[in-house]
Design goal:
This protein is α/β, with parallel strands linked by helices and about 350 residues long. It contains eleven helices and 15 strands. The chain has helices at about 15-25, 40-50, 60-65, 80-90, 105-115, 130-140, 175-180, 180-190, 310, 315-325, 335-350; strands spanning about 5-10, 30-35, 55, 70, 90-95, 120-125, 145-155, 195-205, 220-230, 235-240, 250-260, 260-270, 275-280, 290, 355. Strand 13 and strand 14 form a beta hairpin. Helix 4 (about 80-90) runs parallel beside helix 5. The termini are far apart. The model has no long low-confidence stretch (mean pLDDT about 95).
């Protein structure tokens, strides 16, 4: 096809920041319809990005408009119904993570997409970051030694205020470990493959029990999980959305110990220390800065962590390119379903205080 006519469900900051802004100058992608409950914001966004049609109900968006693809940036509990409806219409689908609120639902969505023969992808944003791609290449080439232990962390503070959010509503989401933890699980799979077991403790630091709409069982806002690998490394994941972050906004952490090397990565999203801090020690040699080769950034600005998503065939642009060419995208619904299996296992492990085997 010459171009991709796209509908998008959602008008959040992230819908605009990660999708609309990154695809606005793609020569073969055009947003033609937007679905949002907040019609005033929808009008503002539509005017900014030249979207001619607005709907308040995603069903009307699918029924009324001639689309080639759908991007789903809705709350987690809405993903399944929207995606299955798009599959019935044989639309290419890009869905925000997590794909679903259970592995059973995620595999149902994967099978529907496979049966429809459509391009499908889930937005695990960070696996395309040049520093992670570079380190994965080093690992796969054996240049860092055999992995023994690793730590992946994603820390933020956006839920420190005790107010209603669907992300903290156990009827709508699986909390922080699904929100931020799914990214870290995807990176663990990216680096090391599928884990064989999960041992987790999911915690609640801020009491929301008196907030209207959140009565009942609290949902996790911080989490720790140990992923076991048969004949492989131990991988520790830590996430939080209630950490005082100072001026950093969010921080991602990667620590790696191998038979020959120790590596430490911190990425701060804002503040005086904004940007990548990557150091490595070989054997007993002094720690040194490890530079990511410029080629990994392509045409993008190495100092702007989102610039690559608007310049290279990664993220939403990767999805569009794959849909236009009728080929598979990665990570796809199958990858997301395997991530969800780990989330499900962590939820069970935390409640039952057991290690849950996955294989």
């Amino acid at each position: 096809m010459d171009h991709l006519s796209i509908g998008i469900v959602g008008s959040s900051f992230w819908a605009e920041f990660a999708y609309l802004q990154r695809l606005t100058d793609h020569p073969r992608a055009k947003f033609v319809a937007l679905c949002a409950r907040d019609q005033q914001r929808a009008q503002s966004i539509a005017g900014k990005y030249g979207i001619s049609r607005i709907e308040a109900d995603w069903r009307r968006l699918l029924d009324k408009h001639d689309l080639d693809a759908l991007i789903v940036v809705a709350p987690d509990d809405l993903h399944k119904e929207i995606v299955l409806s798009a599959c019935e219409r044989k639309l290419a689908v890009l869905c925000e993570k997590p794909l679903a609120n259970s592995a059973t639902d995620a595999w149902t969505m994967q099978r529907a997409a496979a049966q429809a023969g459509i391009t499908n992808m889930v937005m695990f944003t960070w696996r395309w970051q040049p520093h992670f791609v570079f380190l994965n290449d080093l690992l796969k080439r054996g240049e860092l030694g055999r992995p023994l232990r690793a730590q992946l962390g994603f820390l933020a503070g956006y839920m420190r205020t005790p107010e209603y959010s669907w992300r903290m509503d156990p009827r709508r989401s699986n909390g922080n470990f699904a929100d931020l933890g799914s990214h870290m699980i995807d990176l663990a799979r990216f680096f090391f493959g599928d884990p064989s077991s999960v041992t987790a403790q999911l915690g609640t630091a801020i009491d929301r029990s008196r907030i209207s709409g959140l009565e009942g069982v609290p949902v996790n806002d911080n989490a720790r999980a140990l992923l076991g690998y048969e004949d492989g490394p131990q991988v520790f994941i830590e996430t939080s959305c209630v950490t005082p972050m100072g001026d950093r906004f969010m921080t991602q952490i990667f620590r790696l110990e191998t038979t020959t090397t120790s590596l430490a990565l911190d990425y701060h999203f804002a503040g005086n220390e904004q940007g990548l801090h990557l150091r490595i020690a070989d054997g007993d040699a002094p720690w040194r800065t490890l530079e990511v080769p410029r080629g990994y950034y392509g045409r993008s600005d190495a100092h702007d962590f989102m610039d690559i998503y608007g310049n290279e065939s990664v993220g939403a642009r990767h999805f569009v390119d794959c849909a236009l060419e009728g080929r598979s995208a990665s990570p796809d619904f199958g990858d997301a379903a395997r991530v969800q299996e780990v989330v499900d296992a962590a939820l069970r492990s935390s409640v039952e205080q057991v290690t849950v085997d996955l294989i």
